[in-house]
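hi support,

uploading two proteins for the ticket. first:
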Amino acid sequence: MSKVFFTSDLHFGHQNLCKCVRNMGAEESDELIIKNWNKTITKNDKVYILGDITVGNHKTIADYLKQLKGNIVIVGGNHDNLKCCQEITKCGIPIMGVLEYKGFICTHIPIHPMELERYIGNIHGHLHIANQEVLPEQYYNVNTEFHNYTPVLFEDIVKYFTK
């Protein structure tokens, strides 16, 4: 049976971020994310990437995405500019600005707390330094850096909100 996962901020090929935030080279980070992804995801699973697949590497984005198992849907991030979105679209992968999924609002950047009234919570990425404890309970950060560079099972996110 297929499963649903969320992740964000893969930043494939981003030398500075990998060095300063992840304490590894971009190639090492890329390999780790791809390895962990493909150990976790099957070809029938759905994975929502909540933004920032690469930074400036838009001509090679297809090379990265082709290596990942599963059915991918992307919510654009602040580094996913027009060229990036065009390359994603050429891969046949849907890309959107925001997603509502089973009562959750899914965005790249956390939304304003006043916007959460209609939702169970906000599944998001974008924040690299802050951890989950910094945000109120209505937020869940799926940035790959906080989840062992592995997509997060939606059922585990639901458990966080129902504890």
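and the second one:
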Amino acid sequence: MTRTSALLSAAAVALIALSGGWLPIWVLPISTVALGNGLAVLGMIVLWRAGLVSFGQALYYAAGAYAVALAARHLGIRDAVLLVVIGTLAAAALAYVAGFLLARYRGIFFAMLSLALSMILYGLLVNSQTLGASDGLSVPRATFLGFEPRGDDYTWALFAFTLALVWLSAAAVELYGATIAGALSRPMVDNELRIEFLGVSVDRLVHMKVVIAGLLTGMGGSVVGLSVAHVDPAMAFWTTSGGFVFVAILAGTASVWGAFIGALAFEAVRTFAVSTMPGTWQMTLGAALLLTILFVPQGIGGLIFRRRRATGAKP
């Protein structure tokens, strides 16, 4: 990320945060959840750029959310920053362990194995009375560095906090893309053997990307857990991962900001469809996905990339 783009994106995030005070209050929780899901999609983009498709990101999403709930309920931790750090690290640790297995596979085997791991966690959560079984767990309201906002102020504070996480995460992923490990993502898709001849272990690169994706997804799950104030086993179910795949297709891989624009667009379309066509809202989402594949195959990120290239800016 160049200095100019960093300043512009930071200014845009700050402007959006300030505009939250004038938006209808019902928009803020929906936007917070959408941005939290966008963090998970950002993790998927890290994998997709290397040709890795995961159908099991819900594994880390649920791990982050449940870590937040358990830390708040049993350890008495209320600070939102600390809770998100705990949820993020818990998901990253789980991704690190799972990465030793996932790094050995590619293609459909990687996708289905990640799905299997997610469904194992789902089964454990559903059958664990300690973790609330199918009812899940409630999440107490958090504080923000000692401040305890109430009512609408709490909703706005969590929205602004999520925006800060979004900017930091997007900047970090762009910086990672400029490193050697990040730059090798495209060559991994074309010819892994050539990378091995350079003395770089492709399995280690895949392992690193699994951990980064898990970390970002766990952060998203932590934010959503705080926003919804409840976690349940559905967060680990395959349909949750399917939603991330849907948004990833909508977002594309060309720009990190496409993940969040796509997540907001997905949530807006779903909210509109459910409110106007509660019996057939899935058809609206399917039509949106079909139109994206037909007319914008590179996703929203591709549109952002082409606009930057047309104006002479660096991607």
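thanks. also noticed: The chain has one domain: 3-253.
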